[in-house]
Amino acid sequence: MATRTEHKFPPIEGVRWFNVCVLVGTPLIALYGLLFVPFDRRTIMFAVAYYLFSMIGFHRLWSHRSYNACFPLQVFLILGGISSVQGSCYWWARGHRSHHRWTDTDKDPYDSTRGLAWTHIGWILFKSQLRRGVVDSSDLSKDPLVQWTHHHYFPLTALFGYVLPALIPALWNDALGGFCFSAALRLTVAHHCTFAINSIAHYLGSTPYDDALSPRDHFLSAILTMGEGYHNFHHQFPMDYRNAILWYQWDPTKWFIASCKFLGLASNLRVFPSNEIAKGALTMKLKNLKKVQESLVWPPEIEDLPIVSWESFQEESKRRPLILVSGFIHDVSEFLDQHPGGAAYLTKNFGIDVTGSFHGGVYRHSNAAHNLMSMMRVGVLVGGGCPPSQSIPPSQALFVAARHADKDISIK
């Protein structure tokens, strides 16, 4: 994985007091409800449903234009995003596009190199000299729904974030429970689950598609965020309407969008070419295999072995246990006591070409035996005539190579 330079929490130039009030006051209201307000099952069920409404949000439609939505669906989604009290769609989508374009740099609004505290909540609460990088948001500037909700954000967020989730439970005489649970508790959970994508989704998990940047895939992040936790995939293929492509991966937002298409509410669901996704996955598998490959001990290179005449081989075999297999001279001194058939099978063949016996004349040895035998090579017989198929041990028939513009270099 590419090494990231860790930066300090940036110098603070001020406090975003409105955000502080929301992110401190809302949890306090929720805590009051948990301690002193009786639970009403209907309110709790409504709070869960309203939470799902809030979490669908702006992301895949307006930040990434990963599908088209009919106007009623757009209204539903934008009001859901507004109900999460995380800024207008215009502000949120522009910031998220900047995060993708400038990931892990000072121009990334939630630069992961500055630590979990900054990426999770610090950038929201404090002012600094950091400024998000420029992105193209011309489509958002021209979208009448996005602009109308942007200019009326505060009354809309008060209505859909706090007032409406309190008023609906009032229908069954639980307005206080609605305010504490379906408003405040729902918002507290929604805030920190969403913030987790900026924080733990850049630290916790795996990098199955690319490791040049910090985004990672993790099931926990996906559970917390309606499927947005497959962040490594998402940063590699941001225009894809899916965050998860495997059937068992948790991505209810993908299922919601697909259902909307089935109902005729959504269209043009964009997917990245599967061939290119497979390339990314293969690249990371090869990188991981390369690490394993580099951790192993391999037989000496053929060109590094001395070339030995038959006479020298015969003479040297009188002083140490040498046998000839496929044109290679092997020193079996450390294997005599470990040979499955007993040492006698080897001792009687010192100084002898046992290629035929090794390859099935006496016993058809396994790939593991071939691999082990190759580690005992100490020389090459002049004119030994090793068949090409036998010169490379099975363990080295496939290997990871680093490809450069002018040549391929095998990674040993």
UniProtKB/TrEMBL annotation:
One GO CC term on file: endoplasmic reticulum membrane
Organism: Mycena belliarum
The protein's name in its UniProt record: Acyl-CoA desaturase
Enzyme Commission numbers on file: 1.14.19.1
Taxon lineage: Eukaryota, Fungi, Dikarya, Basidiomycota, Agaricomycotina
Family: Belongs to the fatty acid desaturase type 1 family.
Chief location: membrane
GO molecular function ontology, one term from the record: stearoyl-CoA 9-desaturase activity
Cofactor note: Expected to bind 2 Fe(2+) ions per subunit.
Role: Stearoyl-CoA desaturase that utilizes O(2) and electrons from reduced cytochrome b5 to introduce the first double bond into saturated fatty acyl-CoA substrates.
Top-rank taxon: Eukaryota
UniProt subcellular location: Membrane
Segments crossing the lipid bilayer: 17-37, 44-62, 74-93, 153-172
Cited Gene3D superfamilies: Cytochrome b5-like heme/steroid binding domain
Keywords: Electron transport, Fatty acid biosynthesis, Fatty acid metabolism, Heme, Iron, Lipid biosynthesis, Lipid metabolism, Membrane, Metal-binding, Oxidoreductase, Transmembrane, Transmembrane helix, Transport
InterPro entries: Acyl-CoA_deSatase_haem/ster-bd, Acyl-CoA_DS, Cyt_B5-like_heme/steroid-bd, Cyt_B5-like_heme/steroid_sf, FA_desaturase_dom, FADS-1_CS
